[in-house]
Design goal:
This protein is α+β, with helices and mostly antiparallel strands. The protein has a single domain, classed as Protein of unknown function DUF192 (Jelly Rolls), CATH 2.60.120.1140. Helix content is 18%, strand content 34%. Strand 2, helix 2 and strand 3 form a beta-alpha-beta unit. The protein is globular.
């Protein structure tokens, strides 16, 4: 008898803990005093896909590409439908920002973007976000539950 009365409660509790399938790839990222909701791209396939094919990205959100080792990781705009800022990160610090990277239209050749120094993470946000938020070289970048963003 008790089990029957508890079953609806246990089912509701299980639903609360589940969330959506994609939620496990989202985290809070802090740059200076700014907190963003970021989707993490941890695998080579996720990093290659990036933001391609998406119609837009809301302000305050981004895609964080996390690499196993620091290197001159390249970013392209293949399949992009909007402009972005590329924030290059090494050992939990901004090392460079490539602002207002245009998306490719028509048959334009693809430009490959690379950092000036090796990086272990890249943050892609909607164009103008880095300027609006006054992000600068050397600022701390922290992922929730971690001291900083760096190679895994």
């Amino acid at each position: 008898m008790r089990l029957r009365r508890c079953t609806p409660f246990l089912f509701a509790l299980a639903l609360l803990g589940c969330g959506t399938a994609g939620d496990s790839h989202y985290s809070e990222l802090t740059i200076g005093d700014d907190v963003l909701r970021v989707e993490r791209a941890d695998t080579p396939a996720e990093r290659q896909q990036g933001l391609s094919g998406r119609p837009s990205l809301p302000p305050g959100e981004g895609l964080l590409l996390i690499f196993e080792t620091a290197d001159y990781h390249a970013i392209w705009m293949k399949g992009m439908q909007f402009d972005i800022d590329i924030v290059w990160i090494r050992d939990g610090r901004i090392v460079n920002i490539t602002p207002n990277v245009p998306h490719v239209t028509g048959t334009e050749p693809l430009t490959i973007y690379r950092p000036a120094a090796p990086v272990d993470a890249v943050l892609e946000v909607v164009a103008g976000e880095a300027t609006r938020r006054h992000w600068k070289y050397g600022m701390s970048v922290r992922l929730e539950n971690e001291d900083s963003v760096q190679a895994r």
